[in-house]
Structure formats: structure tokens, C-alpha cells
Design goal:
mainly alpha; 15 helices; globular
Length: 417
């Protein structure tokens, strides 16, 4: 099946990168800005640590369920409409969270946030592949990743600042303002990158058939699993950030930056190197370097936690710089490889990749994190397991791809972009 024609851009690549990066940020902002407010929200609603952790897991479950709709919906009616609609709903949901008077109400509006917030990241990936291909697509994906990577570092710091002069509802009012700014920016600047002649009818039976075809594709399974488990090695710390920062590192609500800033610095640097390497270093080699960096980082983290009784900054967080750097090298290559498998169904492919990662993240946040976040050693051992799984799936795909390459039927992952 031939790929659709690439539309002409009416916006500069740099401005598009800034806009798509901002759209990708409001999902992480939804999670990380409220971390410093966990103690105050829990005290007001009489909720313990496990109950408060559900504000993350319910958000992620809703995000995951709706993620399988965002992509195909954008394939059918266009990228721009879906993004604008998601931003509008997110603003309403954030206002509902700010006005919540009890935990069930807060959880309900957190779910609504999750249902809407995926449009920026999921549909944004499809936009990138709509307008660019090859090395140019890798560069833009890396630029967006750099901007997106700032969000987890800024969000808890902003949340802590807001708590310094107001109560926790002000954090959600900030999210309302942020989403409105993005809505106006999208309305004014983002062109429609998926023209009517390239769209697919939103037929439930065909959609289900297409989804099944993607899900049962062994190559999609291997690539999406490699991407999901690779990020999970870092996500286990992000999901456990309130316990890791406040209980293990003994820092205050305003000191989440000690954890997030080093981690995101590594992610931004990795995204920058990935973009600069496009067309110069083969994708498969970049992925191998990325996994090697993550393995070294987690090995150093394990050694540190075995040698000390009480982890302290900066040594407890420095290995995450290298781990995040490695993840940022891997992500653009694997994501573009998945999108290139389905040139006419990029939205659906992006949705299912996101769904795979989000389901895993929701399980980690809602089930695993409350059990392992009491000790730093348990966190690093869990990260080791996830990284090993990610690398195993990647090597499996590379081995299968080389076998088929010898038969002239496919390419090694990372070589086609």
C-alpha cells in the first residue's frame, strides 16, 4: 500500500517543534505538578499514600483507554480537530479537579483529564510523520522530545512554587491556563496535516479489524514492548517520586527538582544527540548505544544503593542522568520504525504504541509502586528487570529483521528511517 503524499507545511519546522512539544507537555504536567501536593491533598481528604497513588493510576488508565481512540479518530476527521477537542475537554477537567471537595470527585475529574490529555502526544507523533520522513522526521521527533522532556522537571518545581503562595487547587487552575494557551496556539498556528483525501472512514468494524491486524503483528509487538519496558525502567522512579523524594531522600515538597532536573537534563541531552546524529549514525547503532548507557546507569545505581544505608543527593539521582540519556536515544528510532510500518494508519499505530506503554505505566503506578517505593534498592532492582526485558525484545526484533533481510523482505530496525 502506497504511502500518502506529504503535505506542504505552512509553518516553520522550528515553530512546529515548539507547538508539538508544548502539546506533548500537558500530559506530564497533569501527573507531575501535583506530586508536591500529595501530603496536603491527602490530609484534606483523609487519604493515605496508597489512596493518593490512585490519582496517578486512574489518570493513566483513562489515558490508556482513550489512547486507542485518539489516533484513529485523527485518521478519520483530521489531526487538528482532535487536538483542539482534547484541549477543550482537558481545560474543563482541570477546573473540575480544582473545585473537587472530596477524593472520589477528584478521581473522577482526573479520569476525564486522562481521557483528553493523550491528544497532544499521540496525535502529535502522527503529525510529525505526516509532514516529514527519514532523517528529517528523526530530527523533528528529537526536537519535540527535547521540549517534552522539560515538562517532568518543570512540573513538580512549578507545583512546589504554587504551594508556596496558595493551596493545592491553584495547581489545577494553572493547568487550566496552560491548556487554554495551547488551545489558542493550536487554533492559530497548527495546519491540518492529514488532508481529506488521505483520511479513513471511522467504521467500527474496519477499525477493530485494523487494530487486531496491528496488535497481532509480531514486529509491532516486539518494538512496542521494547519501547514500553525501556521507559518503564525510569517510570518506576517517576511514579514513586513522592515516596522517593519525600521519604527516602528526606527532601521537602519544594525540592523535587533534585530528582527531576538531573533526570530531564539527561533526556534533553539524549534527544539533542539523537537529532544531531540523524543521517550520520545508523539508527540501530544509536539504539545499541542508548541501551548501553541505560545499563551502565542502572548498574552504578545498584552499586551505590548496595554500598550506602541512606541514599542522599546528588549521588542517588546522578545515575538517572545517564539512564534518561539512553532512553532518549532509543525512543525516536523505535517510534518512527512503528509509524513507518503503517503509512496510512499512523494515528492508529501511534495510539496502540501509546496504549501498550500506558497500560504498563498504570500498573506500575497503581499496583507496583506502592509496594516497592519504601526502599531505593527495590526500585533499582525493578528498573533492572524492565531494562533487561526491553533489551531482550529489541535484540529479538533485530535478529528476526536480519534473518528476513537475507530473504529480501524487510530491513533491520532503525535502518529504514
Amino acid at each position: 500500500m502506497a504511502a500518502p503524499a506529504t503535505p506542504t507545511l505552512s509553518i516553520s519546522v522550528r515553530r512546529l517543534a515548539l507547538l508539538l512539544g508544548g502539546l506533548a507537555m500537558f500530559g506530564p504536567f497533569s501527573i507531575d505538578t501535583i506530586f508536591p501536593a500529595f501530603p496536603s491533598i491527602g490530609a484534606q481528604f483523609g487519604a493515605d499514600k496508597v489512596a493518593m497513588q490512585q490519582t496517578i493510576s486512574v489518570y493513566l488508565v483513562a489515558y490508556a483507554l482513550m489512547s486507542i481512540v485518539h489516533g484513529p479518530l485523527s485518521d478519520a476527521i483530521g489531526r487538528r480537530k482532535v487536538i483542539l477537542g482534547g484541549l477543550f475537554v482537558f481545560a474543563i477537567a482541570s477546573a473540575g479537579c480544582a473545585l473537587a471537595k472530596d477524593l472520589p470527585t477528584l478521581l473522577a475529574f482526573r479520569a476525564l483529564q486522562g481521557l483528553s490529555s493523550g491528544v497532544g502526544l499521540i496525535v502529535g507523533r502522527a503529525v510529525i510523520r505526516d509532514v516529514l520522513h527519514g532523517d528529517d522526521a528523526q530530527r523533528l521527533m528529537s526536537q519535540v522530545s527535547m521540549i517534552f522532556g522539560v515538562a517532568p522537571a518543570l512540573a513538580p518545581v512549578i507545583g512546589g512554587w504554587i504551594l508556596g503562595w496558595s493551596r493545592w487547587p491553584a495547581i489545577f487552575w494553572f493547568l487550566v491556563l496552560f491548556s487554554v494557551v495551547l488551545l489558542v496556539g493550536t487554533w492559530r498556528m497548527l495546519p491540518e496535516t492529514h488532508p481529506p483525501q488521505s483520511r479513513l472512514a471511522l467504521a467500527p468494524r474496519r477499525l477493530l479489524r485494523d487494530y487486531v491486524a496491528i496488535v497481532v503483528n509480531p514486529r509491532f509487538q516486539r518494538l512496542s514492548a521494547a519501547s514500553a519496558f525501556n521507559f518503564a525502567a525510569l517510570w518506576v522512579y517517576i511514579a514513586s517520586a513522592p515516596a522517593f523524594v519525600l521519604d527516602i531522600l528526606k527532601l521537602s515538597e519544594r525540592e523535587f527538582g533534585w530528582f527531576f532536573v538531573p533526570m530531564i537534563s539527561g533526556m534533553i541531552l539524549g534527544a539533542y544527540v539523537s537529532g544531531r546524529s540523524a543521517g550520520k549514525v545508523k539508527g540501530e547503532k544509536l539504539v545499541s548505544i542508548g541501551f548501553a548507557c541505560s545499563a551502565l546507569a542502572i548498574g552504578l545505581n545498584l552499586l551505590y544503593n548496595l554500598l550506602v544505608d541512606v541514599p542522599q543527593v546528588p549521588w542517588a539521582v546522578l545515575p538517572m542522568v545517564l539512564n534518561a540519556f539512553g532512553i532518549a536515544l532509543v525512543f525516536p528510532i523505535v517510534t518512527l520504525a512503528i509509524l513507518d510500518m503503517y503509512p496510512r494508519q499512523r494515528g492508529s499505530a501511534s495510539s496502540l504504541q501509546a496504549f501498550t506503554s500506558l497500560v504498563l505505566n498504570a500498573v506500575i503506578a497503581g499496583v507496583l509502586s506502592p509496594w516497592i517505593s519504601d526502599r531505593a534498592l527495590w526500585l533499582v532492582c525493578t528498573a533492572i528487570v524492565f531494562l533487561a526485558l526491553a533489551y531482550g525484545f529489541w535484540r529479538w526484533e533485530a535478529r528476526v529483521a536480519r534473518t528476513r533481510l537475507g530473504e529480501g523482505t524487510t530491513t533491520v530496525p532503525g535502518e529504514s528511517i
